[in-house]
Amino acid sequence: MNRLIEIFMVALKLGLTSFGGPTAHLGYFRNEYVERRQWLSDKMYQDLVALCQFLPGPASSQVGMAIGMMRGGIIGGILAFLGFTLPSVLLLIAAVYLIHTFSVSLDWIQGLKLVAVAVVLHALLGMGRTSMTSSAAVIIAAAALFVSLLLPTAFTQIGIIIISGVSGIILFKAAGDDQSDRFLVPVSKRTGIVSLIVLLTILLVLPLVTSLVDNDWLHMFDKFYRSGLLVFGGGHVVLPLLEREFVPGMMTADDFIAGYGFAQAVPGPLFTFASYLGAVIKGLLGGLFAMFAIFLPAFLLILGCLPFWEQMRKNTVMRRALKGINAGVLGILAAAWITPIITHTITAPLDVLVAALLFIMLHYFKIAPWLIVVTGIIIGLIVYR
């Protein structure tokens, strides 16, 4: 019991302090879990990150879930997830009530929307530094960008990921690995198989059920579940999927982009943006329900794959595929930055100036993301009221 409490409290600390997006989250995790607490070695941590980047879903959240499972089994994974996720979920639901319940003017939200422009561009450049290390990677990323803009569908993104992975196997080489560390996961392979079966059953059966049953909650679950599963590259890449699922059918584009801006203001995983959308549609219960639906496939994937990871991590073909996938993800992210973020946000020369200022503060002066958000809010209150 003490170990489970420790897992939750450490994850809660990270959930309250981890600003800056998935890459920053992985840095916070390494400092806490590897250096401070030594729950796993640096080599094991790097391999775990590789697995979660290869899988669809929110990579940083999946790393946290996996460490929780390694430390405390399935219950440990759930507690690690709740500790890291609940702070941002509750803050985003509160933001919905602040705007809609008290009829707060939305004009100043333009400042937060411009924050989103700067933050995603910063993420693009950061990923580019690590992914664009060869001409082949540049070609894969450029092709992914072009196809994503030309054919903006969820199936297109899946195809890009598959083709990028195959291209990586053909074009890249993987470095050798030291296998001296072994994963000790208190989860059986049988449990892992059952988890993967449940994952695929929900994915295949749910669209059929929603086509026969007209229920808002069921439709919400289907949309969030598919968005949480069919995404590679983390929170930024889920943006176009969610936008196509919920805009304009269930909310306006302004509400959607404003929520993304609010998501930059809170610590924790960007996937909790779903809680904002759920709260806009169905209130408090909708926000909590959306959190469950969008993170469920990530949890089932980690539960299903972790018992087999000791064997999987020895496969160099998977590592080559990951290099190609990383390049493809960069192209998808660039497309998401262009639309809907740019197309729904930059409408006047002043918007370009403000977005450039916020980007310079974040990228060149290394100002903390939450201070960029505060600056965006202040500019919105002064300039766009």
Automatic annotation (TrEMBL):
Sorted UniProt keywords: Cell membrane, Membrane, Transmembrane, Transmembrane helix
Membrane-topology annotation of the record: Multi-pass membrane protein
Location in the cell: Cell membrane
Residue spans crossing the bilayer: 74-99, 105-125, 132-149, 155-172, 193-212, 224-242, 262-281, 287-309, 321-342, 354-384
Keyword Phosphoprotein applies: no
NCBIfam families in the cross-refs: 2A51 (TIGR00937)
UniProt record similarity statement: Belongs to the chromate ion transporter (CHR) (TC 2.A.51) family.
Name assigned to this protein: Chromate efflux transporter
